[in-house]
Structure formats: structure tokens, C-alpha cells
Amino acid sequence: MVSWVLPVFLAFFLIQYAIETALLLLNLRHVARARGVPAPLAGRVDDATAERSRAYTLANCRFSLAQGAFFAALTLAVLLSGVLPLLDGALAERGVRGAHRFVLFLALVSLAFSVAGLPFAVFHTFVLEERFGFNRTTPRLWLTDRLKSLLLQAALGIPLLYATYGFMRFTGALWWVWLFAFYAAVQLVLLWLYPSVIAPLFNRFEPLPDGPLRERLAALAQAAGFAHRGLYVMDASRRSGHSNAYFTGLIRPRIVLFDTLVERMSVDEAASVLAHEIGHYRAHHVHRHLALALAASFLLLFALSRLVPWPPLYAAFGFGGPSLHAALALVSLGGGAFVFWLAPFAAYLSRRHEYEADRYAVRLARAPEALETALLRLNGENLSNLHPHPWYSAWHYSHPVLVERLAAIQRTAAAERRAPAG
Asked: What pTM was estimated for this model as a whole?
């Protein structure tokens, strides 16, 4: 049985790499051949912005190709070279046993991949983003953010790993059910803590100042019956020139606007963006995504529970026998090859939710033109791709292509105008 485990894994791994690389190359060639502004956007996007968007997309595609090739090669090298069994053996020789070995093994593997990714993170921030005028972070701030992230991951991750070992080791055959319940509770607690405890470690959040924008946004939220924990502005411009807005929290969420968005958008445009976000909340999109994520975690833990006692898995990758930490490492590094085909389904669901939130925004804010100009502004300021290959966008895009999204808003606005009053 051992003889077929490794070939099957390699087949799935190479299929994943081939499909994702082919989609990237298709998108790269499609964008490279595109010129000018798409016909439906003529007069709404200038040629200079379209060309910068095209150049930014090409640069990101090439970066993704290099990064994907590197991490595919690194993952295969780690899994096939025997370095994982060597690390496990080295820990055993030093007397590291039980929970300590479980935690240290997984922490070292995770740290190794994080360190390997640092050159790509540096290049993306200080070369690629800098070239297109987005980067505003300094090396000192970048290093500070990295250090904070590392300390936060250690503060949260190490206790969670010890707890994981405890559930796997001491709660019997249904350990995966208990572990799922524990993880679900932890995730809900972290979602509750994130706005007031975790996010402020990296950014400053100030209440939106009094004025026309605050009055309009507060009135909009009240009209929608949307209870929230306040309107805040985040100092996103300290690190990047990109613009956005988001909610954080499950119950009475905090509304966060990037300072770049507040500076650049009109009151009506910002109100339309908020109406869109309220649409997500009112349609329970956040809760649905959380439920799906928890369901996926449940199924993953069930699969893991079947793999943990299965000797051929360990023999295929050079381990002497079943091991809790080896199982987790192997599934973490190689499991994506078996579920990557779910990505387009998740992207499709996300795009449906975006259309639903846009329809809600048109009905709530009653300013479809402002929503359109807000999306055009965000697209232009973020240099989003105006010419994605349809296969690439279908597989990867969580938001509809701009042309399709604007057309849907116009159809919704026309239907609202035709609808009888009252």
C-alpha cells in the first residue's frame, strides 16, 4: 500500500501546480495583449490609469509565478528530502518528548517557511509596491510589524498547539470532535477580541470626526437598523496607498474606514460603500462564511482523525511510524493539493454575495451613480485589473469584474426606478 501513497500525492500536487500556473500564464498573456480602456468603461477610466493598472497586474502576475514556483519546490523538498524525519529524530535525541516535541516540531516547520518567505515579502513591499507608488511603510515600521506578528503568533499559537496535543492525546477516539468545538470557541473569542485588542497593536483607530460624512453614515446605519460599535478611521496610509473599508466583529461590529478612503471620496461615495458593507451584514454573509469555514474545519479534522493512525502515510514520507505532529505537518504541507479545486466554488459564492450587497446598497443609499463612481475610484486607486482572463477571474476573483459589476448596478437601479412607489 505504501508504494502508491507517494505517487498519488505527487500527481495531485503537480496537477494543482500545473492548473494554477496555467491560469496565471493565461492571465499574464491576456493582460499583456490588452490595450486601452474596455469599451464599457470608455470615458470613465482614463488611458493613463488603464496602462498603470495593466503594468501593475503584469508585475503582480510575474511575482506570483516566481513565488509559486519557489514555494512549490520548497514544499516538495521538505516533504521528499527526509528533512522532517531528521528534525523529528534530532528532537528525540535531545530528549524532547510528548507535548513539547509536538509543539517544537510544528513551530520550527512553520518558522522555517515564514523565514523562507521573507525575501518575497520584502520585494513585494519595497520594490513592487514602491514602484507603483503604494508603499508608504519604512523598513523600521515593516520590521516592527513583523516582530509584533511573530510575538502574537507565538503568544496565541504555542498555547493552542499545547491544547491541540492535549485533545488529540487524551480525549479518545472522538478527539477531533472535541478539538473542533475548542477551535470554534477560540475563533469566536478572537473575532470578538480582534477589534479592540489585536487590531490596535498594528494600527491607530480614531472615531470618525463630526461633520457631514459622519452624519450621513450614522443616518444611513440608523435607517438600515444596523447596530454597530462606532465609526472609526484607520491610519492605513502609514503603510500603503490602497483604499478600503470593512466591518470587524460578529455582533454590533465596528465600522472601519481607511483614512485614504475618507480623504479621497465624496460623502455620497463613502455612504454607498458603507451601504454595501451593511448589505453584507444584513444578508448574513459574514456569518455564512464563518459557518462554511467551521464546516470545512470539521471535515478536515475528521479526515485528519482517519490519517493519524494510518502507517502508510508516515512510511511514504520517511517517518518510522504514526506521530501526531508528523500527521499535522504532512497534512498542512500537502493537504492543499487535494482540496484546491474548491477555490472556484468559494470565489463564485463570494461574487454572488458582492452582487447581493451591491443591490442592497442601491436600495438603501439610493445613489447608484455614487456607488459606481466609488467602485471606479477604488478600482483606479488600487490599480485593479481591467482585463482579467475570464478563466482566471472565475477561479480566483472574490469580487466581480468591474465591467460586470457596474452593469449589474445599473440593472438594479433601473429595476428600482420601474418599481411602484411604496
From this structure: 0.90
